[in-house]
Write a structure and sequence with these properties.
The protein has 5 helices and no strands. It is an all-alpha fold and about 110 residues long. It has one domain. Helix 1 (about 1-20) runs parallel beside helix 4 (about 70-85). The longest helix has 17 residues, at about 1-20. It is globular and about 35 Å long. The two termini are about 15 Å apart. Mean pLDDT is about 85; it is low at about 20-25.
Length: about 110
Amino acid sequence: MKATTFLTAAAFALYLACGMQPVSADNGIPWSSLSPSEQSVLSKHRGEWSSLGSREQSRLVSGARKYLELPPDKRKAVEDKRNQYKKMSPKEREQLRDRYSRQKRYR
């Protein structure tokens, strides 16, 4: 179970590092309803929060909550993976996303 939580958090970190395209606005989760810790984790998305669809908001909040439940050493590992991802070239990122998609099919 711990490995699954770590992988989910790592995937979330990569997802955040990829950036997101806004989807149609609807009555999603108000930014003000997030806890200060959740807002801190999701701060990158504050400016676009209201333009994200409720489904995307829910996915982000779920990932933030899982991240916040991790012990400090696991959080550091997630941050390290995210930083590695940021340093990758666009081609390397695409290859990683492709590998992740293929692996996801076999779960």
